[in-house]
Design brief:
CATH class of the largest domain: Alpha Beta
Bound molecules: flavin-adenine dinucleotide, nicotinamide-adenine-dinucleotide
Largest sheet: 7 strands, mixed
Strand content: 25-35%
Low-confidence stretches: none
Structural class: alpha/beta
Radius of gyration: 24 Å
Number of strands: 22
Number of domains: 3
Number of helices: 13
Shape: globular
Mean pLDDT: 97
CATH architecture of the largest domain: 3-Layer(bba) Sandwich
Helix content: 25-40%
CATH topology of the largest domain: FAD/NAD(P)-binding domain
Length: about 475
């Protein structure tokens, strides 16, 4: 078979690239080694984690906030973990089947098997029964994603010492879940089990959680998570982990060399993800991964071999589904002769804990490091009528704006529905709005978004209205 474009990997980068290529009239094929389409995001990432976060949040509310809302439950409220996991599986099934529908609708040829390069235009597809078939293409897009990073001194047995994939299909609720890494995966999946009753112990190398986001967000989130059973140990370097029966011992060292052991019944290793290129035979196409395992690309996401592009987690940048999608669209449009671009500064980052955390643009730490003159305005959720009505008073909105021009440079939110609210900040910043522009726009009352308007008022002239 001869194609205009073959995409290897069906995650949010790959399947979106394939759809956009087909929309633009290219004869397109998609190759996926797993049984289902959708990659990490749909199968073992974004979607299943959010399904469990939603279920566990219902349980948490039933046991913690219903009484205050005036809802008395007669009898015990119990967690049915197998049903919770089964519902999550059903959500994943529906979502991955949706990709099959989209491939058919867009007349994209699909192949199940491991794709590897024979040369720069030929992909060999090796199926699970060992048989193989070759397809050729003018252009190829590599979208093979990432896998969890492992620590060389810890053996992941997938029973007691687990990655996010196993944490999404637990058979019991951990009594004491030890998290190595206080990043996004640890805090989201830790939240699921903390809400279901686990004690969650976070061991983090840095001096705070979600260290790459604006520091104020991590500090506030730490307070909220402490209320639901999280315990934090910062500036600890994990040195090993062992399992004896059902007990896991994680050993760590403080910065001043003190050795500490943590004991639990499960340990989730969530110390980042690494690009995945195993089995691709990159060298046959004249390509080589860099020393972090990523495929080097230029500003058009083109590799050193001009007809081959790479997108998503397998290239540099944020390892996020929406970043992978934008890159898929950009490559498809480039191949069609268009001149697309991505504003990488405006890719939002979100953590789906409760309260949710979301940020876009520059953090206060980045502005300070760059010596940029800026002003900051904040507004707390507790001063918001909408937040009091729903009992979601933790958190704040922080707006950072250019000291001279008032252009918004960063928006950082922790609070109810922050994940959805950040889109408004992206829109404003894409159009290079000033804090005053946003503060003069009518925001429906009562809404959580009013906190953004108030933070903009605070940043513009320190004149928030409701505090
Ligand atoms: P992937 O989704 O990893 O897809 C790559 C695909 O390529 C896989 O299906 C793989 O089987 C296939 N493949 C690899 N090699 C070959 C080969 N040789 N031949 C054929 N197929 C191959 N991001 C967010 O933006 N929001 C979230 O809420 C979020 N939550 C997450 C939660 C968890 C627990 C995890 C683990 C990740 C989460 N992420 C989230 C990150 C997100 O999943 C990734 O950034 C995203 O999936 C990257 O997309 P991708 O298309 O680059 O690669
Ligand atoms: P991460 O990079 O978010 O966090 C890893 C944490 O582990 C960091 O805080 C790091 O300092 C710490 N760490 C590293 N080595 C350590 C050690 N030896 N001991 C103790 N701590 C150590 O990585 P993650 O949480 O594994 O997530 C992986 C990727 O998946 C992220 O890049 C993220 O973008 C993506 N993801 C996104 C979402 C979302 O968008 N909501 C959700 C889940 C995952």
């Amino acid at each position: 078979m001869q194609f205009d474009v073959v995409v290897i990997g069906s995650g949010p980068g790959g399947y979106v690239a394939a759809i956009r290529c087909a929309q633009l009239g290219m004869k397109t094929a998609l190759v996926e080694k797993y049984d289902t389409f959708g990659g990490t995001c749909l199968n073992v990432g974004c979607i299943p984690s959010k399904a469990l976060l939603d279920s566990s949040e219902h349980y948490h509310n039933a046991t913690h906030t219903f009484t205050t809302h005036g809802i008395d439950i007669k009898g015990a409220v119990n967690v049915n973990l197998p049903q919770m996991i089964a519902r999550k599986d059903e959500v994943v099934k529906q979502t991955t089947e949706g990709i099959v529908y989209l491939m058919k609708k867009n007349k994209i040829s699909t192949y199940k098997g491991v794709g590897s390069f024979k040369d720069k235009n030929t992909i060999k597809i090796t199926k699970s029964d060992g048989s193989a078939e070759d397809i050729t293409s003018k252009n190829i897009i590599i979208a093979t994603g990432s896998k969890p990073t492992e620590l060389p001194f810890i053996k992941i047995d997938k029973e007691r010492i687990i990655t996010s994939t196993e944490a999404l299909k637990m058979k019991e609720i951990p009594k004491n879940l030890i998290l190595i890494g206080g990043g996004v995966i640890g805090l989201e999946l830790g939240s699921v089990y903390a809400r279901l009753g686990s004690k969650v112990t976070v061991i983090e190398y840095m001096d705070g959680i979600i260290p790459t986001m604006d520091k104020a967000l991590g500090k506030e989130l730490q307070k909220s998570l402490s209320k639901i059973g999280f315990e934090f140990h910062f500036s600890h370097k994990v040195t090993g982990a062992s399992v004896k029966g059902s007990e896991v011992t994680v050993s760590a060292e403080t910065m001043d060399g003190k050795k500490v052991d943590f004991k639990g019944d499960y340990c989730l290793v969530a110390v980042g993800r690494k690009a995945y290129t195993d089995g691709l035979a990159l060298e046959a196409a004249g390509l080589k991964a860099d020393d972090r395992g990523k495929i080097p690309v230029n500003a058009h996401l083109q590799t050193a071999t001009p007809n081959i592009y790479a997108i998503g987690d397998v290239v540099a940048g944020a390892m996020l589904a929406h970043k992978a999608e934008e890159e898929g669209v950009m490559v498809a449009e480039t191949l069609a002769g268009q001149k697309p671009h991505i504003n990488y500064n405006l890719i939002p980052g979100v953590v789906y804990t409760w309260p949710e955390v979301a940020g876009v643009g520059q953090t206060e730490e980045q502005l300070k490091a760059a010596g940029k003159a800026y002003k900051a305005g904040s507004f707390p959720f507790k001063a918001l009528g909408r937040a009091r009505a729903s009992m979601d008073t933790d958190g704040f909105v922080k707006v950072l704006a250019d000291k001279t021009t008032d252009e918004i440079l960063g928006v950082h939110i922790i609070g109810a529905r922050a994940a959805d609210m950040i889109a408004a900040a992206v829109t404003a910043m894409e159009y290079r709005a000033s804090a005053e522009d946003v503060s003069r726009m009518s925001h429906a009352h009562p809404t959580y978004m009013e906190a953004v308007k108030e933070a903009c008022l605070a940043a513009t002239e320190n004149r928030a209205l409701h505090i």
